[in-house]
Amino acid sequence: MKNYNTEQFVKDVEALGVSLTQGQIEQFLTYYEMLTDWNQRINLTAITEYNDVMKKHFLDSISLVKACPLKNGTSLIDVGTGAGFPGLALQIAFPDIHVTLLDSLKKRISFLQEVIKTLDLKNVQTVHGRAEDFAKPGLLREKYDLCVSRAVANLSTLSEYCLPFVKVGGLFVSYKSEKSSEERKAAEKAVSLLGGVFLEPVSFLLPESDLSRTLVLIKKTKETPKKYPRKAGLPGKQPL
Question: What is the pTM of this model?
Answer without folding.
Answer: 0.96
